[in-house]
Amino acid sequence: MNSSTSSAASTEFDDLVMGAGLAGLAVASLLAQAGRRVLVLETHDVPGGNAHTFAMRQFHFCAQVHYIFGCGEGQTIDRLLRRLRLSDQVPFVRLDCEGYDHIVVAGERVRIPSGLARYREQLLRRYPQWRVPILGYFETLIAVGEELDRSDDFPRAMTPLSVLRTGYRFRHVLRYARSTLEDVYDALKMPQRLRAILAGQAGDYLLPPRDVSFLLHVGLVCAYDRGAYYPVKHFSSLVDSLADFMRSQPGCALLLEHEIARIHANKGRVTGVTTRDGSTFTARRYISNLDPRLTARLIGAEKLEGDAERLRYRYSASTVTMYLGLRGIDLRDHGFGSFNVWHYPHDDINQIYDDQLKRHDLRSPWLFLSTPTLHTDAPGLCPPGHQILEAATCADYGYFAELRHRDRRAYNVEKKKVRDAMLDVIERYVPRVREHIVLRVIGTPTTNAHFCGAPEGNAYGATLDPAHVTLGRRPFHTSLENLWMANATAGLPSVSGALGAGMQLFGEMTGEIV
Q: At what angle do helices 397-406 and 408-429 cross, to 10 degrees?
């Protein structure tokens, strides 16, 4: 036990946060600023959860995050950083407003500009034969999006009286609360190619149109429409600034490589936590930034019987991500820039997801392609004269986990096949890219589970279908008197969603709105 561990273990803190993901860092920083003595315990050797940055030789890669929303004035991330006086320390650059995402379906490229009206008019000019479904889609999207902007006013409990009072104000949200994106497509009689284009950002929720919540789709599209951003000094600057702020407050600490082995509870209260090395830590209040079901296992599910309904959910899909360090090439010469590219081999996204998640066929995968070294020229990601290209797609955790457990050699062979298939796709955009690779790292769903602490390698907590996406999906006070939960499931995924969950929880605990 090192001296910092010994000191922290001998101190009773006001608040103990389990996990240094973004929700945990947000609520910990706000509580510390408010004068509370806060301890954060993190399993990994770096903070940040899915947003952590890892180093390989002279290259640095963000594990799972590529671009974010909520950074504009008065938006979630901006409000948090202003509150903590970190705005000047963590500036952001906005991705190309003429097309922050490029959707490529069977070779046909469509740019998504900032401004829903601009996007609608662009599609109308390009596809005049689809005027009716295009107009219907954007009319519905905007109506639902405006109501979601007022979601803080939505009643927590739906009673006959609350429905009467708020039903008209939220009539579109209520109408589409149980709808998938495909339900809306079907109602509009939308053609297949247009369906694929408008669902081109599906990797941001890892579900095809058939399965994803329409409310979630609307929320994501509208959020990125207000600005797609990247930190000028990269994602490590955001994570490290929050972590350093919390650690710098009197009586506060963040301990890395402290995996929680047991959460102790007695007589309706948490009484302490024990880590793998046998250290025990105590506090007056406890906040779990861990997965809620994992939290329940660490306590004993019988002690959270009052939260049983909240603990029933399915995990989202996982990913395969490839990180490339390149030399002797400028990706701008191959059509890349300060935007992302979404590649789809054909226009049936439902089938593509079924091929990859159900049939485990990744021979022709969809790909998300990101070029962080083209978003900002700030140093810190790679050596001078080099660039980074990151590629990701969806994959089934169960398939890779079983293969890795049963036959490590077969697992490595499958991993190589997926890697080569992804490179084959990339070479359609960057011919002979293999000749320029100086570093290649690939992570599978089992990698995500190990390094991000994500059960079943999930990318977004509970799956984002209509059953799991409700206006009640937020941080919550558990049935134990002094335990709260906030993460991608007890809240919403994404950087803005996770930080927002931490801010919401701070408000719940203190009555102070950030």
A: 140
CB 298 within 8 A of CB 289: no
Q: How many domains does the chain have?
A: 3
- Nearest-angstrom CA–CA distance, 129 and 131: 6
| Tokens linked to 311 | 């603990």
Q: HSE-up of 28 (CA within 13 Å, CB side)? A: 40
Residue 103 lies in a domain: no
CA distance 239 to 52: 7
Claim to verify: residue 326 and residue 427 sit in the same structural domain: yes
Instruction: Give the distance from CA 403 to its chain's centroid.
Output: 26
The answer to whether 480 and 265 have CB atoms below 8 angstroms apart is: yes
Q: What is the rounded distance in angstroms from the CA atom of residue 79 to the CA atom of residue 366? A: 35
294 and 188 share one domain: no
Task: Please indicate, yes or no, whether residues 308 and 321 belong to a single structural domain of this protein.
Answer: no
Assign 364 to helix, strand or coil.
coil
Q: Going by C-beta distance under 8 Å and a sequence separation of 6 or more, which residues neighbour residue 284? A: 12, 13, 14, 15, 482
Same domain, 407 and 345: yes
CA distance 318 to 331: 27
Q: How far apart are CA 387 and CA 400, in angstroms?
A: 30
Q: Is position 356 within any domain?
A: yes
DSSP 44: S
Q: How far apart are CA 174 and CA 333, in angstroms?
A: 47
Query: In terms of residue numbers, what domain contains 282?
Result: 3-93+233-314+460-465+476-510
pLDDT tens for the chain, 514 residues long, are: 565 687 787 778 999 999 999 999 999 999 999 999 999 999 999 999 999 999 999 999 999 999 999 999 999 999 999 999 999 999 999 999 999 999 999 999 999 999 999 999 999 999 999 999 999 999 999 999 999 998 877 766 656 666 677 778 899 999 999 999 999 999 999 999 999 999 999 999 999 999 999 999 999 999 999 999 999 999 999 999 999 999 999 999 999 999 999 999 999 999 999 999 999 999 999 999 999 999 999 999 999 999 999 999 999 999 999 999 999 999 999 999 999 999 999 999 999 999 999 999 999 999 999 999 999 999 999 999 999 999 999 999 999 999 999 999 999 999 999 999 999 999 999 999 999 999 999 999 999 898 888 999 999 999 999 999 988 889 999 999 999 999 999 999 999 999 999 999 999 999 998 9
